[in-house]
Amino acid sequence: MEGRLSRHWDKGRRFLGVRYPLISGAMTWISDSRLVRTVGEAGALGVLAAGNMPVESLEAEVRALKAASPAVPFGVNLITIAPNYQAHLKKAVEMGVPFIVFAGSFPKKGEVEAAKGSGAKVMCFASTESIASRMIDYGTDALILEGSEAGGHIGHVSTIVLIQEVLFRFDQVPVFVAGEWPPAG
């Protein structure tokens, strides 16, 4: 199966630097450095959930991931509506986190620029075509489409509709699709 999918997966593989172009969802208080490292060792991208953890805890989790052997690529999910968001963004930038995923709402252009300025690859969620366009204009390196069937902070548009509106319109950045597939029910 992997051979037939390789052609379709190559853009995501190259962008993420992983064997499988899959991103683990960041679940607050669950997606810690141990889970993120395990996902990375399995060949996908693990994402640490900053949630609203104390900044010192975020720093410790990032240090644990950077010290892991073998080193695996990883990201940090920053919730833009969390009280600690600005402190989390500052810490992720200072620590040179390889991937920064903005979630919960939408980052400001200067926040995307600050993340990219640190060398991080930036991923932004998009729940509509207009948001996808805005995040690309802000400089995101990849989009994550999240439809109404997904868990967490979801949009109001069905994933099937969102894919048709965004996936086939925007090809300048890699596009990943979030959520449960096939949808439960």
Structure notes:
This protein is of the alpha/beta class. The protein is built from 7 helices and 6 strands; from the N terminus they run ααβαβαβαβαβαβ. Helix 3 links the parallel strand 1 and strand 2 (74-79). Helix 2 (33-41) packs parallel to helix 3 and helix 3 (55-67) runs parallel beside helix 4. The protein is globular and about 40 Å long. The two termini are 27 Å apart. The model has no long low-confidence stretch (mean pLDDT 90).
Q: What is the gist of this entry?
A:
With 185 residues, the chain is an alpha/beta fold. 41% of the residues lie in helices and 15% in strands.
How would the blueprint of this fold be written?
Layout: H1 2-16, H2 33-41, E1 46-49, H3 55-67, E2 74-79, H4 85-94, E3 99-103, H5 109-117, E4 121-126, H6 129-138, E5 142-145, H7 159-167, E6 175-177
Parallel strand pairs: 1-2, 2-3, 3-4, 4-5, 5-6
Helix pairs in contact: 2-3, 3-4
Mean pLDDT: 90
Largest sheet: 6 strands, parallel
The helical percent reads: 40-55%
- Given as residue ranges, the uncertain stretches (5+ residues, pLDDT < 50) are none
> What is the multimeric organization of the chains shown?
single chain
Features:
185 residues; alpha/beta; 6-stranded parallel β-sheet; 7 helices
